[in-house]
Design a protein that fits this description.
It contains 3 helices and 12 strands, in the order E-H-H-H-E-E-E-E-E-E-E-E-E-E-E. By secondary structure, the chain is mainly β. It has a single domain, classed as Calycin beta-barrel core domain (Lipocalin).
């Protein structure tokens, strides 16, 4: 993914650390807030839907847009994949009291996904929910290869409460 907006030098270089601004010394909180700050802006996105063996079944182009609702705590946004006529609303937030960072998304089908991870970590999971086929499904989202202007993410799914994971998209 590549960001299309210009970044200020302080943000691009990571000079403006959230912990330093708030007098916060807790590294997980600083890392969680940095994740939120990193998302802000407009992004070009390529989503690769994966087969069970990890090979690419289909690649589509889309966009993300994120902006602050509550600075350093809550980000809202949307995702669009025109080729698939898909749009979804997104919310990212840090819950300092619970020690978590969460992502919430909902699309046209109305399925609400809440993915929770430890504050400052890059992995978030949903609890098992009933899928469209009636089976329980659980999602795991992992963000990696983070640079000032991009990142990669992997979405996996499980039908056995997280005992085994299948590739979803990258």
């Amino acid at each position: 993914m590549t960001r299309w907006r210009l970044m200020t030098a302080a943000v691009a270089l990571g000079v403006c650390l959230p912990g330093a601004l708030a007098g916060q010394t807790e590294p997980p909180l600083a890392r969680a807030v940095a994740q939120l700050r990193h998302a802000i802006g407009d992004w070009d996105v390529t989503t690769r839907f994966l087969n069970a063996d990890g090979s690419v079944a289909r690649a589509v182009k889309g966009t993300y847009h994120f902006e602050w609702v509550v600075p350093d705590r809550v980000v809202s946004g949307h995702s669009a994949i025109p080729e698939l006529s898909q749009r979804s609303g997104l919310l990212f937030y840090v819950s300092e009291g619970r020690g978590v960072i969460e992502m919430v998304s909902v699309g046209a089908e109305g399925q609400l996904w809440v993915m929770t991870g430890a504050m400052g970590e890059e992995v978030r999971m949903t609890p098992p929910v009933k899928g469209a086929d009636g089976r329980d499904v659980q999602l795991r989202f992992t963000r990696f290869a983070v640079t000032p202007d991009g990142f990669e993410s992997r979405m996996e799914y499980s039908h056995d409460a997280g005992k085994t994971w299948q590739p979803g998209n990258h």
